[in-house]
């Protein structure tokens, strides 16, 4: 392993330096030579024997272990291990309110997929300050983002905001590609219907005048002592993301062709190992994730759902406990942690946008009384007037003789006036059973005798 190898190489260097010092020579002057010698030994072994630092041949990928669902309260999680490189990846699902707002040169836009890559010092056996992400971490995160983003479902099919956090717990080469693999698994574990799983691999190069060798799944030392770090990510059908760092002036088309072909072989092998854990997105999102239900309302009804100054929508959110997002086209997304919350919100919204049906009977509440009748809230926020003549079968002298504010009553829709206001009747409805008794009592009340 890396630490044991470092100890043996360090011990060999110390022995040489101690021997030089014992002979009265300048040991410090030999340190750069020892680094060059180390690089020459590693590079010559690869070119001459085809064997690498850890004994692998040029194409072999290190052992892979993939685990999913290891964090029970997370919406999705994965632990991806390849050799001595390991990434703990967590997926969190949110609503449209959680989207990232990006103020770019070309204008402001929103994204529903975020990927954060963290490389703590302990992952390479060091003690250091944990601060804000540096350029390297931001760059690696963006590379992994580009690898996975093309395979994400559209908002119509999956209206969630997705945030990935990749914590590198151990590193010996290609932690960004481990992040790609772990991200794919964590998203599928969270129930995200990825079009296909994504994997990544880092390719290396040793190039001398006498020839070259392309290395699959390079170690950290092979990155430092070699000539290229070529990261390739994609699916079984093709490449989604590339990044190349080279320390030489250029590479030939032949090298590029071989590197891409070896990367394809390695990528397919990694995808096969990942498939042992999960092959596609789970059928449903985690029980701890919000459940998003989408409904549509007429565009002209949006203002009724929102209310003056947002009063109505705030009341619905407070009553149901759900999060609600309304689009200009009338699409409403309701995010709730339980079916009961979603049902409450949908019921309120349906009640607001529903149109009263002529002749239908509703249960409502008296919200105001007047000399000429009572106003009844009977369909969401919809109110109607029960004229004093429609309060009871007999003659009513005073509205409050029959109903008072707060009473629950059953009413029938008689029609609409010229302004669209709803005309209701209690007289033709049995207040105990809710049955329509129009035929029994007659359509209109009798007029009192003239005096």
Polypeptide structure, described:
By secondary structure, the chain is of the alpha+beta class. The chain has four domains: 2-49, no CATH class; 64-274, Ribosomal Protein S5, domain 2, CATH 3.30.230; 291-353, Ribosomal Protein S8, Chain: A, domain 1, CATH 3.30.1370; 361-441, Nucleic acid-binding proteins (OB fold (Dihydrolipoamide Acetyltransferase, E2P), Beta Barrel). 29% of the residues lie in helices and 29% in strands. The protein has ten helices and 19 strands. It has helices at 2-22, 31-49, 135-148, 175-189, 220-225, 253-274, 302-306, 311-320, 339-353, 438-441, and strands at residues 64-68, 76-82, 85-94, 100-104, 107-111, 113-118, 161-170, 199-208, 211-216, 228-234, 239-246, 291-296, 323-326, 331-336, 361-370, 373-379, 382-387, 408-416, 422-425. The strands form five sheets. A five-stranded mixed β-sheet has the order 1-2-3-7-6. Strands 15-16-17-19-18 form a five-stranded mixed beta barrel. Strands 9-8-10-11 form a four-stranded antiparallel β-sheet, sandwiched between helices. Helix 3 links the parallel strand 6 and strand 7. It is rod-shaped and about 125 Å long. The model is unreliable at 446-451 (pLDDT under 50).
């Amino acid at each position: 392993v890396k630490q044991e190898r470092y100890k043996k190489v360090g011990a060999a260097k110390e022995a040489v330096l101690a021997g030089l010092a014992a002979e009265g020579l300048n040991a410090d002057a030999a340190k750069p030579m020892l680094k060059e010698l180390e690089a020459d030994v590693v590079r010559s072994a690869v070119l001459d024997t085809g064997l690498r630092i850890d004994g692998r041949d040029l194409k072999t990928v290190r052992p892979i272990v993939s685990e999913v669902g290891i964090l029970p309260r997370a919406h999705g999680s994965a632990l991806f291990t390849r050799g001595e490189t390991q990434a703990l990846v967590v997926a969190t699902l949110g609503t449209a309110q959680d989207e990232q707002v990006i103020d770019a040169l070309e204008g402001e836009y929103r994204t529903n997929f975020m990927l954060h890559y963290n490389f703590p010092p302990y992952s390479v056996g060091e003690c250091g300050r944990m601060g804000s992400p540096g350029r390297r971490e931001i760059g690696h995160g963006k590379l992994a983002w580009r690898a996975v983003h093309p395979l994400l479902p559209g908002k119509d099919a999956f209206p969630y905001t997705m945030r990935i956090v990749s914590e590198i717990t151990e590193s010996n080469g290609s932690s960004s590609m481990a992040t790609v693999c772990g991200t794919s698994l964590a998203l599928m574990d969270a129930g995200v219907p990825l079009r296909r799983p994504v994997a990544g691999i880092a390719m290396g190069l040793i190039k001398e005048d006498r020839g070259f060798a392309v290395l699959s799944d390079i170690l950290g030392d092979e990155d430092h002592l070699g000539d290229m770090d070529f990261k390739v990510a994609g699916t079984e059908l093709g490449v989604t993301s590339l990044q190349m760092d080279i320390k030489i002036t250029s590479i030939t088309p032949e090298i590029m062709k071989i590197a891409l072909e070896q990367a394809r072989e390695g990528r397919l092998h990694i995808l096969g190992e990942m498939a042992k854990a999960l092959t596609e997105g789970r059928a449903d999102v985690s029980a701890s994730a919000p459940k998003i239900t989408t409904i549509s309302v007429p565009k002209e009804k949006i203002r009724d759902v929102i209310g003056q100054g947002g009063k109505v929508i705030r009341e619905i959110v407070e009553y149901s406990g759900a999060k609600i997002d309304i689009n200009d086209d009338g699409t409403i997304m309701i995010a709730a942690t339980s079916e009961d919350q979603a049902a409450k919100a949908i019921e309120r919204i349906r009640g607001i946008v529903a149109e009263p049906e002529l002749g239908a009977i509703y249960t409502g509440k008296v919200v105001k009384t007047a000399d000429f009748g009572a106003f009844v809230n009977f369909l969401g926020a919809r109110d109607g007037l029960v004229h004093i003549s429609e309060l009871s079968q007999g003659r009513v002298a005073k509205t409050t003789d029959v109903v008072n504010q707060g009473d629950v009553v059953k009413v029938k829709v008689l029609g609409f006036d010229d302004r669209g206001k709803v005309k209701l009747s209690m007289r033709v409805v049995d207040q105990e059973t809710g049955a329509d008794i129009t035929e029994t009592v007659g359509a209109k009340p009798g007029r009192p005798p003239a005096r």
